[in-house]
Amino acid sequence: MTVRSTVDFKKARRALRNATPEALDAAGRVVLDASNRLIPTDTGEMEKTGDVRVTGDTAAVFYTHPGAARQHERLDYHHDDGQAKFLEQASARTRAEQLAALAGEIRKELR
After folding, report:
1. How far is it, in rounded angstroms, from Cα 91 to Cα 20?
2. Who wins on pLDDT, 33 or 109?
3. Alpha helices (H) in the chain, listed in sequence order
């Protein structure tokens, strides 16, 4: 039995190029959602300032709250809810989900 398969690499490259912004945004949203579950929730204001920005082939997940960087880095702060390193931990813990989000957006473009 012979099985033949062809792959249209031009179509694949085009799909990857077209899907990149949405794929990166989807992966960034996975990190942001996970980070929001870990963020200190004293007032709830910091969570509202989280966002994802895609530029070229890079996604940035960030918070614009004035105290976000300090809360993230200070391991000596006490948090009744949430933790330090909330963004870093979210990124590390969601690698598989980020890849699934990327793949899902690329798959949509291939259809």
Report:
1. 19
2. 33
3. 9-38, 45-48, 68-73, 86-93, 95-110
Q: How far apart are CA 88 and CA 82, in angstroms?
A: 13
pLDDT on residue 78? 80
Contact by Cβ (8 Å): 7, 33: no
What pTM was computed for the model?
0.87
Tens of pLDDT, residue by residue over 75-87, are 888 878 888 899 9
Distance (Å, rounded) from C-alpha 27 to C-alpha 102?
A: 6
Q: Give the separation between CA 9 and CA 7, rounded to whole angstroms.
A: 6
* C-alpha closest to that of 91 among 11, 8, 49, 29: 29
Query: What is the C-alpha radius of gyration for the chain, rounded to an integer number of angstroms?
Result: 18
Tell me the domain boundaries of the chain: 9-110
Sole residue written with tokens 């204001």 = 45
The model's confidence at residue 110, banded by pLDDT at 50, 70 and 90, is: confident
